[in-house]
Amino acid sequence: MATEHVSHIKPYSPQFGVMIPLGFQKFLRTCVIYQLFRFIAINIRMTVLILKSHH
Amino acid sequence: MAKIVIMGGGVSGHTAASFLNKWLGKEHEVIVVTPNSQWNWIPSNIWVGVGEMSKEDVVFPLAPVYEKVGIDYRQAKAISIHPEGKQDDDAPYITIEYTNQEKAGQKDEITYDYLINATGPKLNFDATPGLGNGQGQMGEHTVSVCTADHAIHANHELEKCIEKMKAGERQKFLIGTGHGMCTCQGAAFEYIFNIEHKLKERDVRDMADITYISNESFLGDFGMGGIHFNMGGYATSSKVFAESLYTERGMDWIIGAHVNKVEAGKAHYELLDGSTGEQEFDFAMLIPPFAGVGLKVYAKDGSDITDTIIAPNGFMKVDADYTAKPYEEWRASDWPKTLQNQTYKNMFAIGIAFAPPHLISKPMQSPNGTAINPTPPRTGMPSAMMGKAVAQSIVDMIKGAEEPTHTASMSEMGAACVASAGKGLFSGTAAAMTVYPIVPDFEKYPGVGRDMNGTSGELGLAAHWVKHILHHLFLWKAKLKPGWTLIPE
Ligand SMILES: Cc1cc2nc3c(=O)[nH]c(=O)nc-3n(C[C@H](O)[C@H](O)[C@H](O)COP(=O)(O)OP(=O)(O)OC[C@H]3O[C@@H](n4cnc5c(N)ncnc54)[C@H](O)[C@@H]3O)c2cc1C
Prior knowledge:
The complex is a heterodimer.
Chain A: H1 23-30, H2 32-53
Chain B: E1 3-7, H1 11-24, E2 29-34, E3 38-40, H2 45-48, H3 55-58, E4 59-61, H4 62-69, E5 72-82, E6 93-98, E7 107-111, E8 114-117, E9 122-123, H5 148-166, E10 171-177, H6 185-201, E11 208-214, E12 228-231, E13 234-237, H7 238-248, E14 252-255, E15 257-263, E16 266-271, E17 276-280, E18 283-287, E19 290-291, E20 296-297, H8 306-309, E21 347-349, H9 380-398, E22 415-421, E23 429-435, E24 456-460, H10 461-478
Parallel strand pairs in B: 1-2, 1-8, 2-5, 5-20, 8-21, 10-11, 10-18, 11-14
Antiparallel strand pairs in B: 3-4, 5-6, 6-7, 9-19, 12-13, 15-16, 16-17, 22-23, 23-24
The structure holds flavin-adenine dinucleotide.
């Protein structure tokens, strides 16, 4: 149930106005196949960043 | 033959020394003066602080590494700089005091042709009463993860809390910054997630109240005025990103806080709105503010010229624009490029040791006049890049270049930050953030000041794997093992 991810939030608390990940987002974070693709993406991103930063 | 002296063998100084030694060969002399016998990969202290790594995993002895490559290593701390030499000798020199057992307390002088100041921060615990012990060290009420030994102590205290929770006693955790002028929020950010992960792993999370306290004016400022990430096709503020992470984990936050006093089990603070408060804790890790290490500078006649070379915060002035001006007039071009001191051109300052021209975050103060704003972070990647760029410039200057040939401005370079939460290969996740440039350039990137193609943030296992790999790669590189030059800074 998606509500389990938000059940600890109190109405009108500072946490009430915040973006909270639900089940599918959380699943993706530890889904090895999806994360393998993300791993490649992060490495590419960091390589580009390093290349841009050297002067 | 040129003689290059590097004060400080941490991230930036060790990088500069290693490249200088490689590029200059045996013809020239590279000397490193640094007080600790062991090199510490500081980012992994976080894992030591939750018992996931031992001290041995994050440190290694420097002497054999320097001996292997022919760098002259002095286990000592630099005390003073004499850029004009002395009355009867024009050769610039520094004075040092040995810290190794055999020579402890002995003083010496080392002349130089080029000097690099890479002395990093003094952990200024005493800036907050009760955070320090009044003698420059950490006090007894809180813990820290700034050194490997501090992190071991932190884990020890954490274990005590876990035992109490297992015995049914609720515990309060307070993690964050211990003063209104702290930097390094990233370390506190990473540590709080590791604590939370650890408590879950040990089945005591429901017995813990975890609170983050910080001098940032909003969660996710990070001393960089916040970051807008390209996330899912939205330019998303790091405030949204950070608040989401804390909320998901049921952690509270106190923001815009200057911790002004720490007692046993209690931190007192003032907020940006001028109100005051207290937060009780059973376990507190509060990052101290950073200052320069207290180097003195003397002219040829022995007069003290520290004020002309060193800024009031103790960091060394370089080619930045230090003119005092309001936030609205700050420019990316204020930030130093070559890291060269403008009075003595054979002197450079890199990493945390250089004096920033101003904050990156908007300056703020409470109605009582208390400054509450993060000071600029100078993290590992830019520190190492500065080390390499200055090494390249010095090599070229030795070969005849009039001016430094390489630049490493924080307004023209990016940073990658990977903040872990747990260490297991399939259980831990991490936040991977890239930001370009570190100092926002509102002229080049109007609106959010950053290139939306180079600025991103995401959470997951992949970032965690990156963090693992970086730990091993950077230690490999620092040990100057085969292929170390192929590993980027
Ligand atoms: C807990 C923690 C976690 C962090 N995590 C990350 C991270 O994940 N990613 C990241 O990019 N950055 C991280 N950082 C920041 C990173 O560690 C620093 O940016 C980096 O170490 C700065 O390099 P530096 O060379 O300026 O200073 P340091 O690495 O601190 O080196 C300074 C050196 O100078 C020596 N020294 C001090 N006084 C003297 C003296 N008088 N004479 C000679 N030598 C002296 C010191 O002993 C030290 O060896 C973290 C910092 C902390 C505290």
